[in-house]
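I would like you to help me understand the sequence and structure tokens below and explain how sequence relates to structure.
___
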Amino acid sequence: MFEKLVYSAKSILNKPFKIGIISPQYPSKASNQGVAIHTYYLSEGLAKLGCDVHVFTMGDKDSVKTEFIGNGRRKVHRINVNSKLPDVDPTLKRRLGTFMFDNLILKKIFEENVRDKFDIIHSQITMNSGLIAKYFMDAKWIHTFHSLERLRVKYTSKENKRYMGIINWMQSNVTYPDAIISVSESLRRDILRAYPSLKGNRVFNIPNGVDLGTFKPNNEPLKDKRVLFIARFSMEKGIDIVEKISRGVLNADPGIKVELVVPIDGYLSESMERIKERMSATEKEYPERFIWHKESVNREKLNEIYNQCTIYIQPSRYESFGMTVLEAMACGRAIIVSNRGGMPELVKDGGSILPLNSKLFVAEIIKLFEDYRLRERYSRRAIKIAEKFSWEEVSKRTLELYKIITKNKELDETEKIEEAMKSLDRA
């Protein structure tokens, strides 16, 4: 109650910058979904900067939760979409859920805008509600691309590929936002190639961040030789390659353990079930050395798991940024990643960057276990790189872009964006 009174008094004296973030994913701090993590920490960082942040997301029931953080406020507006979905196959249900969310959440957004007009709308994943808010509420609109679906879907199941047409249609609004954020320079290039009519001076590279208070070295001696991988159970993350790498290193060195945090979340396609069966066979063959977490773990537990491993691997086919890679780097792990997407520009000289080949990964893992000095160099460099990706800095850069876009209404589009680019470059 006291926090609410203080916030209300401050708001009367100095109206806070009001932000509407639209994101289907925002389960909790415990979630390992990339967009959920991004939305959680970005909204928290913006609130700490004194903003009035409203997150519009999915939930088990319709609800509103208010938190006072730093000098600002975060209100999480949840809408229950699942109860309104038909009983169809799981892949279609997920796609329908995202589509319906984009439409159902508009009522909450409009009601909140009537109470007090938004300064900016910032959408994640879905674009339709942002487009409608831009024109019917006369709001400035920014959209963040966390991946390019038309590229990502190539590496997913045939069930997902059936909906390529609807994916392309849902992202066809890409030329309408006042600005677009990409989470890596690699993704920025992909966006501009995919949408030639989109002007490059409207796409800004603001990366993801890492919670440096949670993810950090614990400086405890390692108990064993351990390789770690954390991701969704999907082809884009290279789960089939991870299975081959795991068996390769387990066979090569009886002292190595492999640990996976790969949740199994409901329905799997026939091809993915076969990969699961092979991994289960490996688990049975190496019960003490192949450790597989099949459920999500919270962020604090993840930090423990990172700090227990010697080497972290990410052999993804498609990876626009690599949030788990950044978390592992913040913990000072030796990193091995594929040369795909945004990972090379993230890792730089803080780890090994390889072509996507399971045998090359196995050889590099064995090499790193044998070379303590190289692992230590990678560890020191990784920590220094990760320190540049604090959520505080990401939030500041994002708010700077918001304010540039909203305050320069008198400028034409070209001048406005050029000024924004110069400002962000200085940051």
Observations:
- Confidence is low (pLDDT under 50) at residues 409-414.
- Residues 208 and 223 are 31 Å apart (CA to CA).
